[in-house]
Amino acid sequence: MTITTERLILRPLTLDDAEAAFEWTGDERVAKYMIYSTHESIEITKEWLRSVKTSDTAFEFGFVRKSDNKLIGSGGIRLHDDGFWEFGYNFRYDCWGMGYATEASKAMIELVRSRYGDIKLKAECAAENTASAHVIEKCGLHFAGFGEYQSYDGLKTFKAKIFKL
């Protein structure tokens, strides 16, 4: 499945994306608030890419910039047991602040709405990550409270802002 927006192509990730993806998964600035720890080798990125799965209730995409056909990020939207669809995203550091996260997130939300109609949405980010909170609000979600999340490896714990619609 592929989605086209004004500046991006959202398409499935493949193992061939490892080198481009490592540009952000291996960047400490990008991984700072993420649920994964910084990838220390391209092999870890390849392992992650092998694990990425898409289904009727979980969509994962690579974000390709149309202007130069470069993979600049990834993200997804998935249905949780509580009935909320949750979305997230991750971009190369040099692509921050350009509106790509909002553009990609809105496209993923629209995909799910077009398939399932009126849906409940949620997203969360580290409380300190004000840029990500702003993206979530631009997608129409409202602050619902604080929580906490931990990285997959248990090495990082963050106070989180939770948003819902």
Describe, in plain words, how this protein is organized in 3D.
The protein has a single domain (3-121), classed as Aminopeptidase (3-Layer(aba) Sandwich). 29% of the residues lie in helices and 34% in strands. The chain has helices at 18-25, 28-31, 42-51, 100-116, 130-138, and strands spanning 3-4, 8-11, 58-65, 70-79, 84-91, 120-126, 142-150, 157-164. An eight-stranded mixed β-sheet has the order 1-2-3-4-5-6-8-7, sandwiched between helices. β1 and β2 (8-11) form a beta hairpin. α1 crosses α3 (42-51). The chain starts with a strand and ends with a strand.
What is the strand and helix layout of this fold?
Blueprint: E1 3-4, E2 8-11, H1 18-25, H2 28-31, H3 42-51, E3 58-65, E4 70-79, E5 84-91, H4 100-116, E6 120-126, H5 130-138, E7 142-150, E8 157-164
Parallel strand pairs: 5-6
Antiparallel strand pairs: 1-2, 2-3, 3-4, 4-5, 6-8, 7-8
Domain N-acetyltransferase: 8-165
Protein name: Ribosomal-protein-alanine N-acetyltransferase
GO molecular function: acyltransferase activity, transferring groups other than amino-acyl groups
